C-alpha cells in the first residue's frame, strides 16, 4: 500500500529516544515505522508500525527495508538509533566484546544506510539521521568502547554527507547528552573484570547513571530529530538538550588542559 505521506524508519524504537522519535515523527505527519529486535511480526501502536529488525544482521536489515518499501513505496527519513552501551576499563574488555558493540553501534548503522541509500538516491531526496552522543566528541573514561563507537559514527556521518549531498540526500548527526532512558539496561559489563579497576569502575557507573537520571527527557532529543528531518536547510549536527549544548560549547572554548581537568573531576578520577 503506497502512501503519499513521507515515510520515516526508526531503529531501536521500542523504548527511550527511539520510541519518542517515532511518536514525534508520526505527530509531525510522517508515516512512521519503528523497529526492535523484540517485536514479533508487524503490528501498529500509537500511529507507529512496528517491525522486527536486528541491525547486527545483514539478512534482517535487508528484509526489513524491503518490507517497508513494498508496503509504503518509499523511505524519506532513516533514523539510526539502535545501539548498546559498554562499561569498564578498556583492559577489562575483550576484543570480541568490542567487536560486538561496533557491530551494532557502527556497522549496524552502515548496514541500514547500505540498504536504504540506493532507494533515496534514486528518488533524489532523503535524510539519514544518526544518533550519536556528546561522547562522540568527549572522552569517556570507563566507557572507551562506547565512546570510540560514537567517535567513529561522527567521522563516518560527516564524510558520508559530503558524498551524497549532490544526490539530494543528507546524512546528519544528533548529539544527545544525558537522557532519561533505560540505556543502562542495554549496557554490557566488562567480560574480563579486574580488581585493580573495580572501585573506579563502580564510581564511573554511578556517575553515568546519575548523568542519565538528571538528564533530558527523550522527547527533547525527539524534537531535535524532527528538526533534522524537516528543516529546509539542515545542520550537519544537532545538539539535543541543555547539557549537550553546554558541553559542546565548553569543548570548543575551554583550553585543553582545563577541559582535561574537568573531565577527571566530573568522573571523580584522581587529579
Automatic annotation (TrEMBL):
Sorted alphabetically, which Gene3D superfamilies does this protein's record hold?
NAD(P)-binding Rossmann-like Domain
Q: What InterPro entries does the annotation carry?
A: NAD(P)-bd_dom_sf, SDR_fam, SDR_oxidoreductase
Recorded GO terms, molecular function?
oxidoreductase activity
Q: Which family does it belong to?
A: Belongs to the short-chain dehydrogenases/reductases (SDR) family.
SUPFAM superfamilies from the entry?
Answer: NAD(P)-binding Rossmann-fold domains (SSF51735)
Q: Pfam families under this entry?
A: adh_short
**Species annotation:** Streptomyces hawaiiensis
What is the name of this protein? Short-chain dehydrogenase/reductase
Q: Which PANTHER family match?
A: SHORT CHAIN DEHYDROGENASE, SHORT-CHAIN DEHYDROGENASE_REDUCTASE FAMILY PROTEIN
| Keyword line | Oxidoreductase
The superkingdom listed in its UniProt entry is: Bacteria
